[in-house]
Design brief:
Radius of gyration: 26 Å
InterPro entries: ATPase_NBD, Exopolyphosphatase, GppA/Ppx_hydrolase, Ppx_GppA_C, Ppx_GppA_N, PyroPPase_GppA_Ppx
CATH topology of the largest domain: Hypothetical protein af1432
Number of domains: 3
Strand order of the largest sheet: 8-7-6-9-11-10
Number of helices: 19
CATH class of the largest domain: Mainly Alpha
Cofactor: Mg(2+)
Protein name: Exopolyphosphatase
Distance between the termini: 30 Å
Helix content: 40-55%
CATH architecture of the largest domain: Orthogonal Bundle
GO molecular function, one term: exopolyphosphatase activity
Largest sheet: 6 strands, mixed
Keywords: Cell membrane, Hydrolase, Membrane
């Protein structure tokens, strides 16, 4: 059952430099921004040498999220999208922080990969600009990563996320805010070294226009224009003048541009080093700056889910096609899962929760992709590809949930793998796995019609009732069900069939 379309949506971006929230009203498929909140938390600065987020930074971040949470805690769950980016990808204690942050916000947080971040940034930029057939190069400097994307219309074609950002570069090369020509040279060289492997992919010959998409690039553009060093966004000439001016100072405290806020001063020099190295390496002459960014991309993805255009379903179909899955077999399994779900509305995972059926649909499409690698243990290969691939639209958590389900779709059912998942998945996945295993088992012969059977599940007891004489006429399925009793018994499930 699809979710009701909400009247308002919210997107929250837990960036490595700033936390952003955007709230939009939604009417007849049209969005209007009604509120924006932004706080510079500088999460990346809180990573210690062991890659743990320190307590002071966590407390600052949680105080901000409590303020955000007050604004969105009454929103329905499906109308809010919250993502964590590079610092939460890197932090070893990210999960402990995320648990506290989810309580503050009243909604789940999804950590996304760098490639997914790049896709969403492009989506946000594409929807904030007038339609154009141009090939666009989009760049976003975050606190600890920088994304580079080339796309056309609203589709990103080339995407990269590099581990360098305005906070991390400022901290690494300009310790205690000290500025020097030598340090700036080292910082730009560091950025160039990260970018050189992708020079051919992103150089000036590959695109028509360059667009910047972050607070750092917006600030650099404003500083250039208010200083009279550029009259059209960011230019190479303007950057040369800006760098020469910055290197007259010994400390960032001495920067006195009207367009540079006090809170952005400590990370400004790192952002300038990254953009300067990028312009040099990719032969960029000029870049305009867009209002669209990651959070606008999140809102667009939310809209897609409301209006039957979930990018995750497209991705699942593309991967299934790439790995040559048996589409008819997948469709039959899906149909049987839906048939069973209609009888199992008492289970928490099927109570008005379309996400459960979506995951089971994706599972039907993707559970056999590992056959392309090897027939033996193919479910393990499938699970590995799902967990570690760049799957557009899927968060790291989505991929982990799907991977664990696929890993458990045959042979031994190991419930411990589900116990590590976040709520509510740790509660839903055991029954989801059982439903999928039964659907798959009934279609082992490939393309055989499904019998009209009854199913009931209460806690750990599963009862199946087949039409009279059907089991006698289906000895292979009967043998499989008897084997399944043994597999499920190990996981404390009791399967009874007649």
């Amino acid at each position: 059952m699809p979710h009701q379309i909400p009247t308002s949506v919210a997107a929250v971006d837990l960036g490595s430099n700033s936390f952003h929230m955007i709230i939009c009203s939604l009417k007849d498929g049209k969005l209007q921004t009604i509120d924006r909140l932004k706080e510079m938390v500088r999460l990346a600065a809180g990573l210690d040498k062991n890659r743990n987020l320190d307590t002071a930074t966590q407390e600052k971040a949680l105080a901000c999220l409590e303020r955000f949470g007050e604004r969105i805690n009454s929103f329905p769950p499906h109308s809010v999208s919250i993502v964590g980016t590079n610092t939460l990808r890197l932090a070893k204690n990210a999960q402990q922080f995320i648990s506290k942050a989810e309580k503050a916000l009243g909604h789940p947080i999804h950590v996304i990969s760098g490639i997914e971040e790049a896709r969403l940034i492009y989506q946000g930029v594409a929807h904030s600009l007038a339609g154009s057939a141009n090939r666009r190069f989009v760049m976003d400097i975050g606190g600890s990563s920088t994304e580079y994307i080339i796309g056309q219309h609203d589709t990103a074609h080339c995407k990269e996320s590099l581990n360098m950002g305005c906070v991390t570069v400022s901290q690494k090369f300009f310790k205690k805010g000290q500025i020097s020509k030598k340090a700036f040279k080292k910082a730009t060289l560091f950025a160039e070294q990260h970018l050189v492997p992708f020079q051919g992919k992103f150089n000036r010959q590959q695109w028509d226009e360059a667009i910047g998409a972050s607070g750092s690039l917006k600030t650099i553009s404003n500083v250039l224009q208010t200083s009279g060093w550029s009259d059209n966004g960011i230019t190479m000439t303007g950057l040369e003048l800006l760098v020469a001016h910055l290197l007259k100072f010994n400390h960032y405290d001495q920067f006195n541009f009207p367009a540079l806020s006090l809170e952005r001063r400590p990370v400004f020099i790192g952002a300038v080093a990254i953009i300067y190295a990028t312009f040099k390496t990719l032969n960029i002459e000029q870049m305009t700056v867009s209002d669209g960014a990651l959070r606008e991309g999140l809102v667009q993805d939310l809209l897609g889910r409301f209006y039957n255009h979930d990018i995750r379903s497209e991705t699942s179909k593309i991967i299934a096609h790439r790995y040559h899955i048996d589409h008819q077999h997948a469709s039959q399994i899906k149909e049987t899962i839906h048939y069973m779900a209609r009888q199992l509305t008492g289970l928490p995972c099927f109570q008005d929760d379309s996400d459960t059926l979506q995951f089971l649909n994706w599972m039907a499409e993707l559970h056999e992709i590992g056959l392309e690698i090897a027939h033996s243990q193919y479910h393990k290969h499938s699970a590995y590809i799902i967990e570690n691939g760049d799957l557009a639209g899927f968060s790291k958590q989505d991929q982990l949930v799907l991977s664990r389900l696929v890993r458990n779709h045959r042979k031994k059912l190991n419930l411990e793998r589900f116990a590590e998942l976040p709520w509510p998945w740790r509660e839903y996945t055991p029954h989801m796995a059982v439903v999928f295993r039964i659907a798959r088992l009934l279609h082992r012969s490939r393309h055989n019609p499904r019998p009209d059977f009854d199913i009931a599940i209460k806690d750990f007891e599963i009862r199946l009732k087949f039409p009279e004489n059907w089991l006698e006429q289906s000895p292979l399925t009967q043998a499989d069900l008897e084997q399944e009793i043994l597999y499920l018994k190990e996981a404390k499930f009791n399967l009874i069939f007649e």
